[in-house]
Write a structure and sequence with these properties.
Layout lengths: L1 H16 L5 H16 L2 H27 L4 H34 L3 H4 L6 H31 L9 H27 L6 H8 L1 H4 L10 H8 L2 H15 L4 H32 L8
Helix pairs in contact: 3-8, 4-6, 4-7, 4-8, 4-11, 7-8, 7-11, 7-12, 11-12
C-alpha cells in the first residue's frame, strides 16, 4: 500500500512538473521564433513583402483596365503571353539561384572548389542548367495553352526567340547577383531568391503598358530589359508590328546586366573564399 501510494505521489509530482499541456513551453517556442525573425532583416521584410507586391501589381492592372475597356477583347492572348514570357524570366533567375542554393544547403561548395573548378565555369554551368529547366517548364505550358485555350505563344513568330533570350539572360543576371548576396549574407537571406524577381514584376509591364505607371516608375522601367520585351510583345499582338528599337534596347541593357551580375557574384565569391566562409555555409 505504501509503495503504491509513494508511486502515485511521485507520478503526481512529475505531472505537475511536466504537464501534458504547458503554456510556458508554448510561450518559450513562440519566443524562440520571434527572436529568429527579429534577428534576420530578410525575414522581417518578407512578412510585408508579398501582400504589398500583390497589391501593387493588381492595382496597376485594375487601373489600366478601368481606362481601356477596348482592351478586354484582346486581353486573353496578351495576358497568356505575359504569363508565359514572365515565367521565362522567373525560371531563368530561379534556375540559377536554386541550383546555387542546393550546393549551399548540401555544404558542397567547399568540396567543389578544392577541385580545379573555376568560379566562372560554375557560372556557365548554372546558365546551362537554368536554360534546360526553363525549357522543361515553358514548353509543356505553351503546348497546354494551345490544347486548352486555342492560343499559341509561337504566333509571335521569330521575335519570340529574341524575347526568350532577353528574358532568360536578365534572369541569369539577377540570379548571379542574388546568389552572391546570399553567399555574403548567409542562408538567412535565401528568401531573396524569390523576393527580388517579384519586386520588379510591377515595373516590367507584364500585363499592362508601361505608360500606366507613374512617371518616375516609367523612368525606372526604361532601364529594365523585361519592360522592353513586354512592350514589344504587345506591339506584335495589338498592332501587328515588330519594334526593333525595343529589341535593341533590351539586348543593350542585358549586356550591362549580365556583366554586372557576374561581377557581383565573383566579387562576393572572392571575399567569401578569403574569409573562409565557403567551408562554413550550409543548413
Amino acid at each position: 500500500m505504501s509503495g503504491t501510494s509513494t508511486h502515485g505521489h511521485d507520478t503526481s509530482i512529475v505531472e505537475r512538473r511536466n504537464p501534458p499541456f504547458s503554456p510556458r513551453r508554448i510561450g518559450a517556442m513562440v519566443l524562440r521564433y520571434v527572436y529568429l525573425i527579429r534577428g534576420s532583416w530578410p525575414r522581417i521584410i518578407e512578412l510585408a513583402y508579398w501582400p504589398t507586391m500583390q497589391m501593387i501589381l493588381w492595382g496597376f492592372i485594375t487601373l489600366f483596365l478601368m481606362g481601356h475597356s477596348n482592351f478586354i477583347a484582346q486581353a486573353f492572348g496578351i495576358l497568356l503571353s505575359g504569363v508565359l514570357l514572365w515565367d521565362v524570366l522567373f525560371r531563368g533567375q530561379l534556375g540559377v539561384a536554386m541550383s546555387f542554393l542546393e550546393e549551399m544547403w548540401s555544404r558542397n561548395l567547399g568540396h567543389l572548389f578544392v577541385s580545379p573548378l573555376r568560379p566562372y565555369e560554375m557560372l556557365v554551368s548554372l546558365m546551362v542548367v537554368s536554360f534546360i529547366r526553363t525549357l522543361i517548364g515553358l514548353i509543356p505550358a505553351s503546348l497546354l495553352a494551345m490544347m486548352l485555350f486555342g492560343f499559341s505563344l509561337y504566333s509571335l513568330g521569330l521575335p519570340l526567340i529574341g524575347f526568350f533570350f532577353n528574358l532568360i539572360v536578365m534572369g541569369w543576371s539577377i540570379g548571379f547577383m542574388v546568389s552572391g548576396l546570399i553567399l555574403r549574407a548567409g542562408l538567412g537571406a535565401e528568401s531573396m531568391a524569390w523576393a527580388v524577381i517579384f519586386a520588379i514584376a510591377p515595373i516590367c509591364g507584364i500585363y499592362y503598358p508601361i505608360d500606366v505607371l507613374p512617371g518616375w516608375l516609367q523612368s525606372v522601367a526604361f532601364f529594365l530589359p523585361a519592360s522592353h520585351v513586354f512592350e514589344g510583345m504587345r506591339a506584335i499582338l495589338v498592332d501587328g508590328a515588330f519594334r526593333p528599337d525595343l529589341m535593341f534596347n533590351a539586348v543593350l541593357l542585358n549586356i550591362g546586366y549580365l556583366a554586372l551580375g557576374m561581377f557581383v557574384f565573383l566579387t562576393f565569391f572572392r571575399s567569401a573564399r578569403v574569409q573562409g566562409v565557403i567551408l562554413q555555409v550550409g543548413e
